[in-house]
Known about the structure:
225 residues; alpha+beta; Alpha-Beta Plaits; 2 domains; four-stranded antiparallel β-sheet; elongated
Amino acid sequence: MKTFADIIKKSVLQDLNAGNITTTTILITLGVTCVLALYLFVVYYFATRRSLYSKSFNVALALIAVITASILLAMQSNLVISLGMVGALSIVRFRTAIKDPMDLMFLFWSISIGIICGAGMFVIAVITSLVITIGLFLLELTPLGKAASLLIVNCDSPEPEKDILAVVAKYSKMAEVKSRNAAKEKLDIIISCKPSDENALVDEVTKLSHVYGVSLLAHDGEVTL
Protein backbone atom coordinates (compact mmCIF):
# COMPACT_ATOMS: atom_id res chain seq x y z
CA MET A 1 0.00 0.00 0.00
CA LYS A 2 1.42 3.38 -1.03
CA THR A 3 1.79 5.98 1.63
CA PHE A 4 1.34 9.71 1.22
CA ALA A 5 5.13 10.16 1.28
CA ASP A 6 5.52 7.66 -1.60
CA ILE A 7 2.99 9.57 -3.68
CA ILE A 8 4.80 12.84 -3.06
CA LYS A 9 8.18 11.31 -3.97
CA LYS A 10 6.77 9.82 -7.17
CA SER A 11 5.22 13.15 -8.13
CA VAL A 12 8.47 15.01 -7.55
CA LEU A 13 10.48 12.45 -9.54
CA GLN A 14 8.05 12.75 -12.42
CA ASP A 15 8.41 16.53 -12.36
CA LEU A 16 12.19 16.25 -12.29
CA ASN A 17 12.14 14.27 -15.53
CA ALA A 18 9.18 15.88 -17.23
CA GLY A 19 10.94 17.02 -20.41
CA ASN A 20 7.60 17.44 -22.21
CA ILE A 21 8.69 20.45 -24.28
CA THR A 22 8.98 19.31 -27.89
CA THR A 23 11.20 20.78 -30.55
CA THR A 24 8.14 22.01 -32.42
CA THR A 25 6.93 23.89 -29.34
CA ILE A 26 10.33 25.49 -28.89
CA LEU A 27 10.52 26.60 -32.53
CA ILE A 28 6.99 28.00 -32.55
CA THR A 29 7.50 29.84 -29.26
CA LEU A 30 10.81 31.36 -30.25
CA GLY A 31 9.51 32.18 -33.74
CA VAL A 32 6.51 34.13 -32.41
CA THR A 33 8.74 35.80 -29.83
CA CYS A 34 11.19 36.88 -32.52
CA VAL A 35 8.39 38.38 -34.60
CA LEU A 36 7.06 40.37 -31.64
CA ALA A 37 10.61 41.35 -30.64
CA LEU A 38 11.19 42.71 -34.16
CA TYR A 39 7.90 44.57 -33.91
CA LEU A 40 9.05 46.07 -30.60
CA PHE A 41 12.34 47.05 -32.24
CA VAL A 42 10.51 48.98 -34.96
CA VAL A 43 8.08 50.65 -32.54
CA TYR A 44 10.91 51.82 -30.29
CA TYR A 45 12.77 53.24 -33.30
CA PHE A 46 9.80 55.36 -34.38
CA ALA A 47 8.49 56.21 -30.91
CA THR A 48 11.68 57.51 -29.33
CA ARG A 49 12.05 61.26 -29.65
CA ARG A 50 15.36 61.76 -27.93
CA SER A 51 18.03 63.51 -29.93
CA LEU A 52 20.40 60.62 -29.24
CA TYR A 53 18.94 57.30 -30.43
CA SER A 54 20.45 54.28 -28.66
CA LYS A 55 20.56 51.41 -31.12
CA SER A 56 22.30 49.15 -28.58
CA PHE A 57 19.41 49.59 -26.13
CA ASN A 58 16.91 48.84 -28.90
CA VAL A 59 18.77 45.65 -29.84
CA ALA A 60 18.89 44.69 -26.17
CA LEU A 61 15.10 45.10 -25.92
CA ALA A 62 14.52 42.66 -28.77
CA LEU A 63 16.97 40.06 -27.44
CA ILE A 64 15.69 40.30 -23.86
CA ALA A 65 12.28 39.11 -25.07
CA VAL A 66 13.83 36.06 -26.76
CA ILE A 67 16.04 35.27 -23.75
CA THR A 68 13.09 35.54 -21.36
CA ALA A 69 11.01 33.19 -23.50
CA SER A 70 13.89 30.69 -23.54
CA ILE A 71 14.13 30.82 -19.76
CA LEU A 72 10.40 30.18 -19.43
CA LEU A 73 10.65 27.18 -21.75
CA ALA A 74 13.54 25.75 -19.75
CA MET A 75 11.71 26.26 -16.46
CA GLN A 76 8.66 24.43 -17.81
CA SER A 77 10.66 21.44 -19.02
CA ASN A 78 12.39 20.53 -15.78
CA LEU A 79 11.88 21.36 -12.11
CA VAL A 80 15.61 21.25 -11.34
CA ILE A 81 16.34 23.76 -14.11
CA SER A 82 13.57 26.05 -12.88
CA LEU A 83 14.99 26.04 -9.34
CA GLY A 84 18.46 26.67 -10.73
CA MET A 85 17.18 29.57 -12.83
CA VAL A 86 15.53 31.15 -9.81
CA GLY A 87 18.75 30.85 -7.83
CA ALA A 88 20.89 32.21 -10.65
CA LEU A 89 18.64 35.16 -11.42
CA SER A 90 18.34 36.08 -7.75
CA ILE A 91 22.04 37.02 -7.59
CA VAL A 92 22.00 39.15 -10.76
CA ARG A 93 22.32 42.88 -10.13
CA PHE A 94 21.62 45.44 -12.85
CA ARG A 95 23.40 48.71 -12.16
CA THR A 96 22.73 50.56 -15.42
CA ALA A 97 20.55 53.57 -14.66
CA ILE A 98 17.54 54.17 -16.91
CA LYS A 99 17.14 57.92 -17.31
CA ASP A 100 14.10 58.00 -19.57
CA PRO A 101 10.82 56.60 -18.14
CA MET A 102 9.85 55.54 -21.66
CA ASP A 103 12.87 53.23 -21.78
CA LEU A 104 11.62 51.59 -18.60
CA MET A 105 8.22 51.03 -20.20
CA PHE A 106 9.81 49.42 -23.27
CA LEU A 107 11.97 47.24 -21.01
CA PHE A 108 8.94 45.87 -19.16
CA TRP A 109 7.18 45.41 -22.50
CA SER A 110 10.08 43.31 -23.76
CA ILE A 111 10.12 41.16 -20.62
CA SER A 112 6.35 40.68 -20.74
CA ILE A 113 6.56 39.50 -24.36
CA GLY A 114 9.10 36.86 -23.35
CA ILE A 115 7.07 35.70 -20.33
CA ILE A 116 3.73 35.54 -22.15
CA CYS A 117 5.15 33.81 -25.22
CA GLY A 118 7.17 31.45 -23.04
CA ALA A 119 3.93 30.45 -21.36
CA GLY A 120 2.40 29.72 -24.77
CA MET A 121 -0.20 32.51 -24.69
CA PHE A 122 0.65 34.04 -28.05
CA VAL A 123 -2.72 35.73 -28.63
CA ILE A 124 -2.37 37.67 -25.39
CA ALA A 125 1.14 38.78 -26.38
CA VAL A 126 -0.03 40.02 -29.79
CA ILE A 127 -3.11 41.83 -28.45
CA THR A 128 -1.10 43.39 -25.61
CA SER A 129 1.55 44.65 -28.03
CA LEU A 130 -1.08 46.21 -30.31
CA VAL A 131 -2.88 47.87 -27.40
CA ILE A 132 0.38 49.29 -26.04
CA THR A 133 1.33 50.64 -29.47
CA ILE A 134 -2.03 52.33 -30.02
CA GLY A 135 -1.99 53.80 -26.52
CA LEU A 136 1.59 54.99 -26.90
CA PHE A 137 1.05 56.96 -30.10
CA LEU A 138 -2.39 58.29 -29.09
CA LEU A 139 -1.07 59.64 -25.79
CA GLU A 140 1.91 61.18 -27.58
CA LEU A 141 -0.48 63.11 -29.85
CA THR A 142 -2.57 64.57 -27.01
CA PRO A 143 -1.77 68.21 -26.16
CA LEU A 144 -2.28 67.58 -22.44
CA GLY A 145 0.86 67.74 -20.37
CA LYS A 146 2.97 69.39 -23.04
CA ALA A 147 6.37 70.29 -21.66
CA ALA A 148 7.23 73.96 -21.46
CA SER A 149 9.93 75.51 -23.62
CA LEU A 150 12.75 77.73 -22.44
CA LEU A 151 13.12 81.08 -24.17
CA ILE A 152 16.63 82.48 -23.73
CA VAL A 153 17.05 86.15 -24.67
CA ASN A 154 20.32 88.09 -24.70
CA CYS A 155 20.16 91.90 -24.65
CA ASP A 156 22.72 94.67 -24.54
CA SER A 157 20.51 96.63 -22.13
CA PRO A 158 18.09 95.77 -19.27
CA GLU A 159 15.41 98.00 -20.79
CA PRO A 160 13.55 95.55 -23.09
CA GLU A 161 12.55 93.08 -20.34
CA LYS A 162 8.96 94.37 -20.14
CA ASP A 163 8.64 94.25 -23.92
CA ILE A 164 9.95 90.68 -23.98
CA LEU A 165 7.44 89.55 -21.37
CA ALA A 166 4.64 91.27 -23.28
CA VAL A 167 5.53 89.43 -26.48
CA VAL A 168 5.75 86.10 -24.65
CA ALA A 169 2.31 86.72 -23.05
CA LYS A 170 0.94 87.30 -26.54
CA TYR A 171 1.88 83.80 -27.73
CA SER A 172 1.76 81.84 -24.46
CA LYS A 173 -0.82 81.62 -21.68
CA MET A 174 1.91 80.94 -19.15
CA ALA A 175 5.20 82.78 -18.81
CA GLU A 176 7.54 82.38 -15.87
CA VAL A 177 10.98 83.92 -15.53
CA LYS A 178 13.36 81.15 -14.56
CA SER A 179 16.58 83.14 -14.58
CA ARG A 180 17.53 86.80 -14.84
CA ASN A 181 21.12 87.98 -15.13
CA ALA A 182 21.17 91.77 -15.38
CA ALA A 183 24.03 94.26 -15.54
CA LYS A 184 24.35 97.92 -16.49
CA GLU A 185 24.69 97.17 -20.18
CA LYS A 186 23.53 93.59 -20.42
CA LEU A 187 20.52 91.35 -19.71
CA ASP A 188 20.29 87.57 -20.02
CA ILE A 189 16.84 86.23 -19.24
CA ILE A 190 15.34 82.74 -19.37
CA ILE A 191 11.55 82.41 -19.58
CA SER A 192 9.52 79.20 -19.32
CA CYS A 193 6.57 79.27 -21.70
CA LYS A 194 4.30 77.18 -23.93
CA PRO A 195 4.04 79.18 -27.16
CA SER A 196 1.28 78.50 -29.65
CA ASP A 197 3.54 79.63 -32.51
CA GLU A 198 7.23 79.16 -31.77
CA ASN A 199 8.54 80.72 -34.99
CA ALA A 200 6.43 83.84 -34.64
CA LEU A 201 7.50 84.25 -31.02
CA VAL A 202 11.19 84.04 -31.86
CA ASP A 203 10.85 86.40 -34.81
CA GLU A 204 8.99 89.07 -32.83
CA VAL A 205 11.35 88.93 -29.86
CA THR A 206 14.33 89.17 -32.22
CA LYS A 207 12.95 92.39 -33.71
CA LEU A 208 12.87 94.13 -30.33
CA SER A 209 15.43 96.83 -29.75
CA HIS A 210 18.59 95.94 -27.79
CA VAL A 211 17.99 92.19 -28.40
CA TYR A 212 20.92 90.50 -30.13
CA GLY A 213 20.32 86.81 -29.36
CA VAL A 214 17.23 84.57 -29.00
CA SER A 215 17.11 80.81 -28.41
CA LEU A 216 14.09 78.56 -27.82
CA LEU A 217 14.84 75.21 -26.24
CA ALA A 218 12.50 72.26 -25.70
CA HIS A 219 12.61 71.44 -22.00
CA ASP A 220 11.81 67.89 -20.79
CA GLY A 221 13.27 68.10 -17.30
CA GLU A 222 16.78 66.95 -18.18
CA VAL A 223 19.61 67.94 -20.47
CA THR A 224 20.21 65.64 -23.45
CA LEU A 225 22.85 66.06 -26.12
